[in-house]
Amino acid sequence: MVNKKTTFNRQPVSQNITRVENLISKQDREHLMGHHPATFWFTGLSGSGKSTISLAFEKALIERGIKAFVLDGDNIRHGLNRDLGFSAEDRKENIRRISEVARLMNKAGIVVITAFISPTIADRASARKIITESGQNSYFNEVFINTPLEVCEQRDPKGLYQKARAGEIQNFTGISAPYEAPISPEIDLPTSELTIEQSVEKLLRSLSL
Ligand SMILES: Nc1ncnc2c1ncn2[C@@H]1O[C@H](COP(=O)(O)OP(=O)(O)OP(=O)(O)O)[C@@H](O)[C@H]1O
Ligand SMILES: [Mg+2]
Which ligand 1 atom is at minimum distance from the Cα of 44? Predict the structure, then answer.
């Protein structure tokens, strides 16, 4: 049984823990990979296009020889975070664990693209803090998949809005739970105006790897 109170605490539960340092330097690892690591933290409503654009962006990066990997909401909730639901507390813990995974993958030299709704400004700020804290990676980009609720609801690729409107899903972001849009995201992708390809081009143009 997970003790939620201790899960949220960033301090380890045990005092008897000592860090080890890798023998490979950050520079040597980057040389090996051929580029800097980075995190592209996508945020947006359900149906905004996070999964669609992140997968297209990952493919474009791989085709350019950049080691990239998408962490997607639904996939992570099937495995690592399958014990978490959609309460405010569980959403927070969801984001904390993803951030720690992204941080580790960045340390391994990989470009990480995350595709989670991540609805609160506070949670995204905490993701930025966790991911950049180690000093191993200062390339954190908040990417706003900027699609109006009406468009997301019209797309409704998973039929979730219909269920949420019918009261069959509780705490549904945009309908019965809040979404706080980013105030100054590094990258803004208004998908009502951009095709998937144009969004990927805009992301590629932002690269300084
Ligand atoms: N310009 C566009 N950019 C991105 N997606 C678009 C665009 N136009 C239409 N779509 C469609 O919108 C849908 C977006 O769904 P997607 O699963 O990517 O959303 P999501 O943000 O990952 O949602 P969730 O949070 O539920 O996982 C897809 O069916 C996609 O084909
Ligand atoms: Mg998705």
Answer: 21
